[in-house]
Fold this protein.
Amino acid sequence: MHDLVIRNVRPMGGEATSVSIRDGRIAGYGSTPDNAAQALDGAGAILIPGLVEAHTHMDKTLLGMGWYHNEVGPALIDKIENERKQRRILGIDPARQSARQAVLAASLGVTHIRTHVDVDTEVGTTGIEGVLETRERYRDIVDIELVAFPQSGMLIRPGTVELMEKALQLGAQVVGGLDPAAIDRDPKNHLDVVFGLADRYGVPIDIHLHEPAELGAFSMELIIERTRALGLQGRVTISHAFCLGMADHDYVAALIDALANARIHILTTAPASRPAPAVKRLVEAGIVVAAGSDGVRDTWGPYNNPDMLERAVLVGLRNNLRRDDEVALALDTCTYGGARMMGLNDYGLEPGCKADIVLLDGETLAEAIVSRRPRKMVVKGGKVICRDGATSITAP
């Protein structure tokens, strides 16, 4: 028996059909089985795979808390140090806050999240433990992947390396890094630790690289060299990668070729205030490009929310993607691109894929993306969890 049939849907804005779901997976399209346990009318909605939030910080969001009056200085280190202080002052509970973001994201059609969770000598692995609690509690509505993230640096704060290892032992699935030259000021040893942990625990790597221009390019070259030398092609992500937006186009072209050869993924948040990787150019080079919202209403800034349709619009705006097929490319960074980055082998709309799907209201795919209306339906693992933007699932 089919668990669910949704009639009159348009996969990726194509011709109307019916989708059948059995045992939590897409069984097929076309003819409608008579023995479905539940049959719903899609009313001509556009069917897309679940949205993928490939870079966020769920342990630090201020969702549901009082307004934070931001007076933080402009430098990256100012924001990092202020955040450590405000965690104590504001009483940010990683389990509670990550749960609030998880439920909101799920109601917006996000079915998979990669979240970077702070590990440092002040909070230890409290953030990891809190988000692990959320991952288990809400596993029926969203899959959450944790990155052990040394936000305050590793080598400059003795004891952090041991805490990173503990985080992986507790259940973090990815090892993170941060600005090997600008923050730790020791790129060789920083990358020794990151790649060493990845090798020891058999996990992928995701490194924040805010470093600009030639400095960032230098760190990027070191990451590329190690990826090749250790045979980690397809297992490494560089987040932000602002150096790919520098003005030296020949240097950037050489970096792009090297990234493609090493099969290193690039994550962009489509920032408004920093140079950014050119999404279309990277995709044309064969590089997997994913997108994320980064911090959601936190001490770094009041902006962002977990709506990955909005993020697709921001990717489109930042990259001057205007044609309908280009708008679809922007959405790809928030769906298939994120899924490829995270290694989700059963993701998509093909028969046999996990039934993590979203129904969008719109005349065409591009119109649905830019309109960002409430999601008509969200299905996770074959079960409807949200209708018309409303969900019965509550957050603390």
Q: What stands out?
A: The mean pLDDT is 96. The radius of gyration is 21 Å. Residues 213-229 form the longest helix (17 residues). The chain has two domains: 4-49+348-387, 51-342.
